[in-house]
Hints:
This protein is of the alpha+beta class. Among the domains are: 33 residues, no CATH class; 94 residues, Arc Repressor Mutant, subunit A (Orthogonal Bundle), CATH 1.10.10; 200 residues, Alpha-D-Glucose-1,6-Bisphosphate, Chain A, domain 4 (2-Layer Sandwich), CATH 3.30.530. It has 18 helices and eight strands. A six-stranded antiparallel sheet has the order 3-4-5-6-7-8. The radius of gyration is 45 Å and the shape is extended.
Amino acid sequence: xxxxxxxxxxxxxxxxxxxxxxxxxxxxxxxKPDSITRELYSLLGExxxxxxxxxxxxxxxxxxxxxxxxxxxxxxxxxARKDGHLFSHWIRAEDKEYRFxxxxxxxNIITYSNEEYALNLTALDWSREETDYLxxxxxxxxxxxxxxxxxxxxxxxxxxxxDIKDRYYTVVRKVLMARTPIAMMTPTQTEELNQLYYNKExxxxxxxxxxxxxxxxPAEIAEExxxxxxxxxxxxxxxxxxxxxxxxxxxxxxxxxxxxIAKYTSSQGLGILANNILNADKSRKRKIHENxxxxxxxxxxxxxxxxxxKKIKKLSSREESIYGVSWHEKLHAGIYLRSTRLNMxxxxxxxKIATILxxxxxxxxxxxxxxxxxxxxxxxxxxxxxxLDAKKHLDRLEQEHRVAEARVQENPINDxxxxxxxxxxxxxxxxxxxxxxxxxxxxxxxxxxxxxRREVDPxxxxxxxxxxIVCRQSAPxxxxxxxxxxxDSYVREVSxxxxxxxxxxxxxxxxNLTFSHIVSVEETVVYRPAPHDPLRKTLFEQEATFQAxxxxxxxxxxxxxxxxxxxxxxxxxxGREGFEGVLANMAESVFRTEQTRPETPYH
Length: 603
């Protein structure tokens, strides 16, 4: 059949192509070792070595085709020296100049004339000759003030590095301002003038602070680290509470659906729903078109971009406040009162906040609810809420204190164990007077005193006593009402009696344990003999610091600190009068004892 068709169309016969046989790749199989089983050998896989095996061979010699550099012994004169001394060294043949001569840079020290010094540079504690001497050292040592302070020796005058820096920068600033007034200075000159400002008192305080940090004991460092960790924990807890409160407010502000789905069950309701969806799609497409038109600007050339954006200026924060430009995180539809958008609190907390605001003399509603006043009012509300949240921490701390106090009562401190074998000279007299300070008729608020620890330093003889004082609470009623706590407050007192000759002092340091996370109070009292009459008179020094440590606003913190200062001033006077009464009673009792003691005959 096929041959007939080929004859009909005059086609030549072609041999039928045979299928080409595929050549299978040869696989090389390794012979299994005789000393290993077939199962274990199949687990080895391709048996690839764990590291690359390199063949040991000799290190090839580098092929250096370039010509060796010629070095010559040459003499030279250092341009930085003025004596013209001749030196010699090996250098390359092509080097002609001393390569390190270009690194000779001198600091440009300003100079002043006699007229400038007489008009602007005169000082009470610096003479013209000493000022010239200082500037000569600055030129010689290139303003290396450490070296200048070490080499400074002008007629036996003692100058610290701070004095030298203060005099130098003061002279330079006055000379520059006299030659070019500040109003006529260029921005570069103004920046250079600002760099020449030196605060001597701040530098001295900084070095003292660094010295105090360097002198810390390991116990103080460990205490600071513990306080830092505790502050981080409190801060993290505050952030967590704020985030949870923000999330709760966001859920409360979400719109609540008022309608039902029953109206969409009929055909007419489905038609209305379809029209609403269609309109929503059209508005979304319109927004997409607007975004595309704004993105089309990116395809313009730089020339067109400059022409379009030439009049666009980014306002600074000061200009935004002047022109009233503000950026809102969330825009609300329609017209509304700004006071209605304030964050609403719970009814119970709102009542407490209103009471605290009334106590502070602030209105519960804003008279002029501007953007700033609303923001400050919300910040004040958050601070008061943080104050209320601090009650949880206070309850936990008071519970820990009650547990520790119960342990102390179960295991009382035996005074006989704390006694020392050696005599304490006048330490016992000081401690006896100190123990009899409370109670007295002036300090009726002290309820009890417990001695926690008493020890004597065997090297210095300093007697250290740690006591816990329980007093009636004197905090305002609104703080006790909202923060919590009972009417008792706890104070930790540490007293040190130094009997060494020339160092006779009695130092008492006390700090509040109650509400310390809100307001910290630290008091230091020092008794020492008067230098002019040590047998009959005693010097009394008293110092106290107050700090509102909670996250309050500046106004609330200032109010609390002001109230604490007034309260302390009243109590300090009462405490001094009470202690003087105790001393007078002791002196009277000693006088009566001396009168009733029988006389001892002399032999």
